[in-house]
User: Which sequence fits this backbone?
């Protein structure tokens, strides 16, 4: 404010300018700006206080006791398979859906021979999946592209839940859909109770529950799938690394449903292997000649820098700097820091062949998670392409992955440097770790089968004629 006023005053150096109307107007504008800033500050403090008090009285998270659940979270399936599944909200004609629900739920249902997708919500044999992230990404992107929106999101001033999106109305909207279907079923003399699966694939670590739906349908028929199960994860400016947080203890009605290796990623990998290397998904691609020593697919592109930094990316920036420093310190080391193919929202929609080719050309791929939550597609993409993967520590490593055996975790900048140098100088150990990656449980249909049946029914093996296609050295 002081600098603004000084710059305005410098426009005229004559003492007579004190009587100039333009000077009075400038001074009045500056005072008005100062007044607006004070009002905005007061409003921000008021909203923050109101938000904190509201969180303490959140009826979903703090005051509703978790139901007593049995050890068996599966339900009695329909008499015949495949099991019909209705997904809400999902409208393919109007593109009304989240990317995650399309990549995981819809694709998983379509790919599994034990499941079938139905648009008939009154199918008496169908189970329902509710997308708890409906509307979340729209609010997030609208806010994150503006500085004021970033501030409100960062401080949770747009809602009661962490990361600033209040999902309280979602349960009510989903309940309205259920009750509307019950009214239609009553006229058709169809059963009024059926299994409900609430799938939360958002970044929120808070536990989403819908007690009203449990009351109407019976808690024994309502199950939850949750992606983000680590809370308290933060980037520490003092330590210059991420504090890992704590892993949530979920009741048996909840299933941890992490992300997957996407089907379009595997298809893109299949195409590149065939066209460029004359290889298949079953080939030992971890042994392919690779020219990049260490790769980190992240760079602070000016166009996206503000947005990405607002997305909790301090650790990613730090790792990019670390890998770049390695390349400068060791001139013979070939490092790659940047993007390959599409990134941002476009990268969520499809997988570029340039990105697959870059992954296949890297001996070591370093993947870093967002500062505030665990789990991302980049981990699965790097693993499935046969590189040895170094990741920042995960409290919720995907099933089958073991630190030191199939993936390497690092806990600091120095740890990342030393492990990168060690495994570059020990190629046999590096290739052995890349070979031991376990990807046979992380396709879209695995998530859906486990959510609905309580177990994975489609097992991958070396034989391409089995339930699901063999996926890159699956174990």
Assistant:
């Amino acid at each position: 404010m002081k600098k603004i006023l000084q710059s305005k005053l410098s426009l005229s150096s004559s003492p007579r300018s004190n009587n100039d109307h333009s000077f009075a107007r400038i001074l009045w504008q500056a005072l008005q700006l100062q007044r607006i800033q004070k009002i905005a500050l007061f409003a921000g403090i008021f909203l923050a206080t109101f938000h904190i008090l509201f969180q303490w009285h959140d009826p979903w998270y703090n005051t509703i006791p978790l139901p007593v659940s049995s050890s068996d979270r599966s339900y009695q399936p329909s008499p015949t398979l495949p099991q019909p599944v209705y997904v809400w909200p999902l409208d393919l004609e109007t593109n009304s859906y989240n990317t995650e629900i399309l990549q995981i739920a819809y694709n998983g249902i379509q790919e599994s021979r034990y499941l079938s997708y139905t648009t008939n919500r009154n199918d008496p044999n169908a189970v329902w999946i509710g997308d708890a992230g409906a509307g979340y990404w729209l609010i997030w992107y609208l806010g994150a592209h503006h500085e004021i929106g970033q501030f409100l999101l960062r401080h949770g001033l747009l809602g009661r839940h962490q990361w600033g999106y209040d999902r309280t109305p979602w349960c009510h909207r989903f309940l309205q859909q259920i009750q509307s279907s019950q009214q239609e079923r009553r006229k058709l003399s169809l059963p009024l109770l059926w299994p409900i699966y609430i799938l939360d694939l958002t970044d929120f670590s808070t536990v989403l529950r819908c007690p009203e739906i449990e009351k109407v349908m019976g808690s024994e028929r309502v199950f939850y799938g949750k992606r983000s199960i680590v809370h308290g994860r933060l980037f520490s400016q003092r330590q210059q690394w991420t504090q890992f947080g704590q892993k949530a203890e979920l009741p048996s009605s909840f299933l941890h449903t992490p992300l997957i290796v996407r089907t379009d990623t595997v298809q893109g990998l299949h195409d590149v292997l065939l066209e460029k290397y004359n290889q298949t998904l079953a080939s030992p691609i971890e042994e392919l000649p690779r020219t990049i020593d260490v790769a980190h697919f992240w760079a602070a592109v000016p166009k996206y820098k503000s947005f990405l930094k607002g997305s909790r990316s301090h650790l990613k920036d730090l790792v990019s700097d670390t890998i770049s420093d390695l390349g400068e310190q060791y001139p013979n080391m070939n490092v790659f820091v940047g993007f390959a193919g599409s990134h941002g929202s476009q990268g969520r929609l499809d997988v570029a062949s340039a990105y697959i080719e870059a992954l296949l050309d890297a001996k070591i791929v370093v993947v870093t998670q967002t500062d505030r939550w665990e789990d991302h597609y980049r981990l699965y993409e790097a693993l499935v392409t046969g590189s040895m993967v170094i990741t920042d520590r995960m409290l919720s490593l995907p099933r089958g992955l073991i630190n030191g055996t199939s993936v390497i975790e690092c806990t600091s900048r120095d740890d990342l440097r030393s492990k990168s140098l060690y495994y570059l100088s020990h190629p046999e150990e590096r290739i052995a770790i890349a070979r031991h990656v376990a990807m046979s449980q992380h396709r879209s249909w695995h998530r859906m089968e486990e959510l609905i049946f309580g177990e994975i029914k489609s097992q991958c093996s070396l034989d391409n004629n089995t339930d699901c296609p063999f996926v890159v050295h699956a174990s």
About this structure: Residues 1-21, 50-75, 137-147, 153-165 have pLDDT under 50 and may be disordered.
